[in-house]
Write a structure and sequence with these properties.
Largest sheet of chain B: none
Radius of gyration of chain B: 15 Å
Strand content of chain B: under 5%
Distance between the termini of chain B: 41 Å
Number of strands of chain B: 0
Order of helices and strands of chain B: HHH
Number of domains of chain B: 1
Bound molecules: iron/sulfur cluster
Largest sheet of chain A: 4 strands, antiparallel
Oligomer: heterodimer
Strand content of chain A: 5-15%
Number of helices of chain A: 19
Helix content of chain A: 25-40%
Number of helices of chain B: 3
Shape of chain A: globular
Largest interface: A-B, 11 and 11 residues
Strand order of the largest sheet of chain A: 1-2-3-14
Distance between the termini of chain A: 32 Å
Helix content of chain B: over 70%
Chain lengths: ~475, ~90
């Protein structure tokens, strides 16, 4: 431990330092201090200028019980169970479907839901289900990469361009942002986060799940088994910011539009990034929600921490993100996982649990297992109840994102100052900050018409505002 | 832009205040000046906070924070008047 290890006692020192940095203006990534488990850094580009603890490579920001934690079966997640599990087949229709039918079939006017809202929502989901059409294919599909024969040129070596692997990794992340990601990180792939099977991969036989196994050099489908070679040991995790004002409409069509937009961008970006990697001669498996658990992969890749709401909380965008990933054998340099006080803050904050209309978010302490078969036990966390969430939700509910104090329309100096306090993990201040957040009107539902009356520049979250 | 305007307003306020103390021959110690300057800095901070909320469109936040922090600014002002300005005027 070094002299300037961060402890609560250094509160005033840190506060003085933080204020000096705030006043002095913030620029690029810089190390502020050393901590027991890593370094405290501030990076405009990666973390929206917020202070973040970058952990040492061998430190993971969650507790696992390796006796209990096993690979999860994709067949067990709630989306899969909706199509095969007798307990789920007769579930009540979601509110979203009911209201949609009402509008389309003219059964009646839905208060506060206009055709404008439905149009925005319906179009935003356009590319979300492209996995049926092979967007998330493990192999190169038609396109210029194959047309130009780029994937057959052998594996690209960064030394050709006098680049290091660090620079090559930065280039891959650059490509991810170029194709539409809001942020990207790299992790060494933990096989525990891969699903043990692929559920109904062709979407035809909806009761079928094929096992996924590590393959020596076998890749793809062979004799009803999917093989992922052990050499494919890197994952590029990508996150997509969702529109602030759309999410603020939750529960409503515009929140569904923000979600659908995220899903569509996941499909586009993951698949183009995979083709980029293939064009460099490496293998790539793009995935949205499939193949494995996106959240722990993203945590390992340094994109954020897990919140009480079961969602990844990113330093820059808060919980207002969607995730996708590309698994590859390109030897990219992994990022470090990060911590910035989310777990400690969530222990004091119940806002998502209080505002969840289906009571799916626990309001107690973290546990090692959940109550649903769709939960994967073995990690100390808050286990949400996916069935009740889905049944309320469809995709129109994002209350747990809307009310979260980490969800803000921009990263102004005001919010940065509050984050300084959160990072200090000074528990007693948390309750005051939560009360002030509520009193200030953050997390209130935005009406549809208020959304539409905003001019375009304001209603589409301007990325530069999050810098 | 608004920030520049506010900064200008508060700086002018301070200059006016300073010339008022000179004109009336008030005797204010260094320590008292530090308290007065801190009050002006705090006032700038409160104004900047309120402006930030307004620019963000969080009017309720502007009102709540403006009231809480503004109240503290008023108390600070009253105390400065009662214990610094009034006393230093009497000395004259
Ligand atoms: S999406 Fe809605 S229903 Fe689901 S956990 Fe979040 S708040 Fe609850
Ligand atoms: S609303 Fe509060 S408890 Fe829930 S995830 Fe956000 S910070 Fe954590």
């Amino acid at each position: 431990m070094t002299d300037n290890t961060i402890e609560r006692r250094s509160f005033l020192k840190r506060l003085g330092l933080s204020s000096a940095i705030l006043v002095g203006g913030l620029s690029s990534s810089r190390i502020i201090a050393e901590t027991t488990d890593g370094v405290l850094v501030r990076s405009d580009k990666d973390y929206g200028k917020f202070p973040v603890e970058r952990l040492k490579q061998n430190c993971i920001p969650y507790d696992m019980d390796s006796e209990i934690l096993k690979q999860m079966s994709e067949k067990r997640n709630v989306f899969s169970r909706n199509v095969w599990d007798p307990l789920r087949l007769n579930r009540p229709e979601t509110e979203e479907n009911i209201t949609y039918e009402n509008l389309v079939k003219g059964k009646g006017e839905i208060p506060d839901q206009t055709r404008l809202d439905y149009a925005l929502m319906a179009a935003s989901w356009k590319y979300a289900n492209m996995d049926y059409g092979g967007v998330y294919s493990w192999e190169l599909q038609d396109g210029m990469v194959g047309g130009m024969g780029l994937e057959k040129l052998g594996t690209w070596d960064p030394e050709e361009l006098d680049m290091t692997w660090n620079e090559a990794t930065a280039a891959v992340k650059h490509a991810a942002l170029f194709y539409g990601a809001s942020t990207a990180g790299v992790a060494e792939l933990n096989p525990l986060w891969l699903y043990s099977d692929r559920f109904s991969p062709d979407r035809k036989d909806r009761s079928r799940a094929l096992p996924v196994r590590p393959g020596d050099e076998r890749f793809g489908l062979e004799n009803d088994v999917w093989y992922i070679p052990e050499s494919m040991n890197r994952v590029v995790a990508v996150a997509f910011e969702e529109d602030f004002y759309g999410i603020c409409n939750s529960p409503g069509r515009l929140a569904s539009a923000a979600t659908g937009n995220g899903y569509s961008r996941m499909a586009f970006t993951a698949s183009t990034l995979a083709d980029f990697i293939r064009a460099l001669g490496y293998r790539a498996i793009p995935a949205g929600n499939g193949i494995g658990l996106s959240i722990p992969m993203a945590i390992d890749a340094g994109l954020g921490e897990l919140g009480r709401n079961g969602i990844l909380i990113n330093p820059k965008f808060g919980p207002r993100i969607r995730l996708a990933k590309v698994i590859t054998d390109m030897p990219l340099i992994p990022d470090s996982p990060i911590k910035f006080g989310v777990t400690e803050f969530c222990e004091d904050c119940m806002l998502c649990a209080e505002h969840c209309p289906s009571g799916s978010i626990p309001d107690g302490k973290r546990t090692w297992s959940g109550t649903s078969v769709s939960n994967n036990p073995g990690v100390l966390k808050w286990y949400i109840h996916p069935e009740t969430c889905y049944d309320f939700n469809g995709f129109s509910c994002s209350n747990c994102k809307r009310v979260c104090p980490f969800n803000k329309p921009n990263n102004s100096w005001l919010h940065k100052m509050i984050r300084e306090f959160i990072e200090l993990k000074a528990g007693s201040l948390n309750k005051i900050m939560i009360s002030l957040d509520q009193a200030s009107g953050y997390g209130e539902q935005l009406s549809d018409m208020d959304f539409w009356k905003m001019d375009g520049n304001q209603s589409i979250t301007a990325r530069e505002k999050m810098e | 832009m608004v920030e520049f305007f506010l900064g200008g307003l508060i700086t002018s306020g301070f200059i006016l205040f300073y010339s008022h103390t000179r004109k009336n021959g008030m005797k204010i110690s260094i320590f008292q000046w530090m308290i007065i300057i801190a009050a002006f800095v705090y006032l700038s901070f409160v104004s900047a906070t309120v402006v930030e909320f307004v620019e963000e469109g969080t009017f309720k936040g502007a009102a709540v924070i403006g009231c809480i922090m503004g109240f503290a600014a008023v108390i600070w002002g009253i105390l400065i008047n009662r214990f610094i300005l009034t006393k230093s005027t009497k000395k004259k």
